Amino acid sequence: MLTTAATPSAYPPLNVRVHTPRLSLLGATDELLNRLIPIVRKGIATEPPWPFDDPMSLYQDGPEREWAWLRGVWAGRGRVGAGFWRLYFVVVVDGEPVGIQDLIGTDFAAFGTVCTFSWLDPDVRGAGLGKEMRQAVLHLAFAGLGAREANSEAFVDNTASNRVSAAAGYTPNGANWATRRGEPAELNRWRLTREQWIEHRRDDIDLVGVDDCLPVLGIESVR
Length: 223
Prior knowledge:
Number of helices: 7
Distance between the termini: 38 Å
Keywords: Acyltransferase, Transferase
InterPro entries: Acyl_CoA_acyltransferase, GNAT_dom, Ribosomal_N-acetyltransferase
Pfam families: Acetyltransf_3
Oligomer: single chain
Protein name: GNAT family N-acetyltransferase
Number of strands: 9
Enzyme class: transferase
Radius of gyration: 17 Å
C-alpha cells in the first residue's frame, strides 16, 4: 500500500496534495512515478477515440516509451517560473496510483488562466474518477492558486472527456486542431470561469502544502 505520509520534499511543488473523499492528487515524486510504470506499460491505445500525440506515445510499446514519459515529466517539473509552470500529480485511490492529473499555467500572473491534462488506468475508467480528478484539480486552481479561468480541450469523439468538462460546469468555447497518429483531428474547446466554478464548488476537498508552493510559481498572493 502507498503511504501519503512520506518525508516532505525540499521542493514545495512535490508536497502539494489535494484530497477528496474518493481520491488524492499527490505531487509526482520519482517514487510515485515508478509506481505508475506498470500502468504506462499497459496503456497502449488500440481503438478509438485515439489520444493526443505527445512524447509519451500511446501507440507503441517498449521501454523507450516509458523512458520518454519519465523524461517528459522530469523536463516539465524543471521548467517552472512566473511565465510557465506545470504541476504533475499522481492520482491515488485506496493507496494505489491509478493515473496522472496535471495543472498548467501560462503567464498566470497576468491572465490567471490554467488548463488541465490527465490520463487514467484503463482498468478503472468509467467509474467517475475522471470527473473527481478534474474537480480536485479545479479546486486547487481556483481556491488554492486564485485562478480566474480554466480551459480544457478534447477530441470531438472523446465522449468521456467532453462529458467530464460539461459535468464540471465548463461551457463550449469553440474548436481547435491537434494531431493524433500524425493526422489532424478536431478538438472541442471548453471554458470555466471563476464564477461558474463557484456555482459547482464543493466543500469536501482539502488542500495541503499550497502556500509554500506559491513563491515557486511566481504567485505573490491569492485573489
